[in-house]
Amino acid sequence: MSEFANIALMPPILSVSNLTKTYASGLQALKSVDLEIRKGEIFALLGPNGAGKTTLISIICGIVTPSQGVVIADGHDIVRDYRAARAKIGLVPQELSTYAFETVWATVSFSRGLFGCAPNARFIEKVLRDLSLWDKRREHIMALSGGMKRRVMIAKALAHEPQILFLDEPTAGVDVELRRDMWALVRGLRNSGVTIILTTHYINEAEEMADRVGVINKGELILVEEKTQLMKKLGRKQLTLHLREPMAQVPAELDAWGLVLKDEGREIEYRFESTEEGTGVPALLKRMAELGIAFQDLNTRQSSLEEIFVSLVTERAGAPQ
């Protein structure tokens, strides 16, 4: 049984039902969102700017009041039992907001106290060491680089030992080395049982890190799928044949395959659904041989998560409202 299959058997640690948010201006930021997140999974929420990602996170974290709907965090209603629910959640927002004149140690310790947790110097030390902040513990926030301030934000979010951690665009503007460190930390947190929900513009990160992917657009959650199943279901494959002799146009006898000539007639490109039983590739190669069209090399590639995401959003934008 796969790691995600084990996670899928767990009860949801976060449950969102019929969540709607309409602002006074009339803007409907969320439209009847339903979502369940399992304990110990990494869930990536993707969507274009203004899609509703930050609104959804802000409601779950108690920053924004929903117009309608229910959110249960580890058994606690975020409205009726706010304090208990919020204690289960850690949030690393997009914006860097810290007390500039405080030290790293004081800032992180203060965040723990805000949630009514007893002081625990050993735990704070572990968090700071895990984030490579131990050597900076006595420095004032204002003296830190942008990357180190980002690490402090994560340390603050972890200070009260939350079971659910939201990372809202955590690696925006962060250098490659820090990004790698942060993802190593995320994997470590997941291994310790923390549930991670992240939004990111770096879709390759979601492809590498996430167990499941949700796509939100114009306030609607248009798809939630296990990542590998999503790529298998929606991914297209592309076969490229490098011809021995360039051709001016595709012969009419090959029209059934919808081929496209590339590289000034030196390549033929054939796209097909990766889940189709009969992809047409064997028949295509046979017909080309019958027509005397020789090729010297071929390669295939599958759509990336980014291409799938773009096609989903584009398809949705073109659908009648």
Kindly describe this structure:
This protein has 321 residues and is α/β, with parallel strands linked by helices. Helices cover 34% and strands 27% of the residues. It has 11 helices and 14 strands. The protein has helices spanning 3-8, 53-60, 82-87, 104-114, 121-130, 146-158, 176-191, 203-209, 227-234, 281-290, 305-318; strands at residues 12-22, 28-38, 42-46, 68-73, 76-77, 89-92, 164-168, 195-199, 212-217, 220-226, 236-243, 260-262, 267-273, 295-302. The strands form 3 sheets. Strands 6-7-8-3-9-10 form a 6-stranded mixed beta sheet, sandwiched between helices. Strands 2-1-4-5 form a 4-stranded antiparallel beta sheet. It has a 4-stranded antiparallel beta sheet with strand order 12-13-11-14. The chain is elongated. The chain starts with a helix and ends with a helix.
Give the SSE layout.
Elements: H1 3-8, E1 12-22, E2 28-38, E3 42-46, H2 53-60, E4 68-73, E5 76-77, H3 82-87, E6 89-92, H4 104-114, H5 121-130, H6 146-158, E7 164-168, H7 176-191, E8 195-199, H8 203-209, E9 212-217, E10 220-226, H9 227-234, E11 236-243, E12 260-262, E13 267-273, H10 281-290, E14 295-302, H11 305-318
Helix pairs in contact: 4-6
